[in-house]
Amino acid sequence: MGIRAGGWRAMAGGLVAKSCDSCKNCAAALFCRADSAFLCLTCDAKIHAANKLATRHERVWMCEVCEQAPASVTCKADAAALCVTCDADIHSANPLARRHDRVPVEPFFDSAESIIVKTAAALLCRLPQFPTPKRHRSVSH
Ligand SMILES: [Zn+2]
Ligand SMILES: [Zn+2]
Ligand SMILES: [Zn+2]
Ligand SMILES: [Zn+2]
């Protein structure tokens, strides 16, 4: 299962990603259905780690195309999570796309951070950049 962030974003062209309802600083990476809130990874971790009940909150990723709405289906052919609007848009575009196999998006209950490690979606919340050590390549003639 591959979630690609960024690939689609270029196509959406200049749309500003929805910001986190909690800190209003980061781009929202997911939507908590129980809270009806868009959250970035940091706030998700903070809010949902705070109490045991909250770990039962159903969360879904943001739509990878518009980043404005929670994803509702995953298109296997596109390997992308799409909201209702984008799903309709993209898959009504041509007869081939209409045949794409789509499944309802699977909500997750774990901390998004533990899942995100495997996905490029981590880039959505501009994580602090680690200083890259300069590589000195010794060139000997
Ligand atoms: Zn936040
Ligand atoms: Zn929640
Ligand atoms: Zn969308
Ligand atoms: Zn598709």
UniProtKB/TrEMBL annotation:
> From the UniProt record, which GO molecular function terms apply?
zinc ion binding
Family annotation (InterPro entries): B-box_zinc_finger, CONSTANS-like_Bbox1, Znf_B-box
This entry carries the following GO cellular component terms, namely: nucleus
Keyword Zinc: yes or no?
yes
List UniProt keywords, sorted A-Z.
Answer: Metal-binding, Nucleus, Repeat, Transcription, Transcription regulation, Zinc, Zinc-finger
For this entry, list what GO says about its biological process: photomorphogenesis; regulation of DNA-templated transcription
Q: Does the keyword DNA-binding apply?
A: no
Q: Where are the transmembrane segments?
A: none
Domain named B box-type: residues: 20-62, 58-105
Specify the superkingdom: Eukaryota
Annotated localization: Nucleus
What name has this protein been given in UniProt? Zinc finger protein CONSTANS-LIKE 5
Organism this protein belongs to: Prunus yedoensis var. nudiflora
Q: What is the lineage of its organism?
A: Eukaryota, Viridiplantae, Streptophyta, Embryophyta, Tracheophyta
